[in-house]
Amino acid sequence: MTEKPMVAGAPLTIEYLERYPNFISICASWTFGQWGCQSNGSYERTRAEFETATKSSMPLTLVAIENALPVGMVTLAARDFDGKPHLSPWLKSLFVHPFHRKKGIATLLIERLEHEALRLGLKSLYLITEDARLLYEKSGWRAIDHVQTSYGEAALMKKALLPLN
Length: 165
Hints:
Layout: E1 6-7, E2 10-16, H1 24-34, H2 43-51, E3 60-66, E4 69-77, E5 90-96, H3 105-119, E6 124-129, H4 133-138, E7 142-149, E8 152-160
Antiparallel strand pairs: 1-2, 2-3, 3-4, 4-5, 6-8, 7-8
Helix pairs in contact: 1-2
């Protein structure tokens, strides 16, 4: 499923990362730079996760592409937060390049990932956010707990997915 909404005048597509292996290092750099380097992660481990991304199981990574360049990404994964190992699956690594923020790309990525989760037969999703709670609440997510992460206090959020018609 490819979406082609107009974002700031240019067509935007959302594609599976596995179709664009040349974007793996970019996604790994964004993720490691945003989160991994502050939480004892490694670039190699981050890259390895993206190399295993597929459209038929987790991890599943979607990439927002504008003018043949990646501008954002999001991942569906079985695990994300070690403090809640019994919860699964997770929306994680939602990232939009700073030059492309405030265009609605994050919301499109969230909606598409929810659609993919439903396609895979999932009934709900979890996520952790330190600073984007309002973004997720606008997409129907609700905070169910507060947790401590490497970056400070965060909201643990959940969304029950509605079946496709």
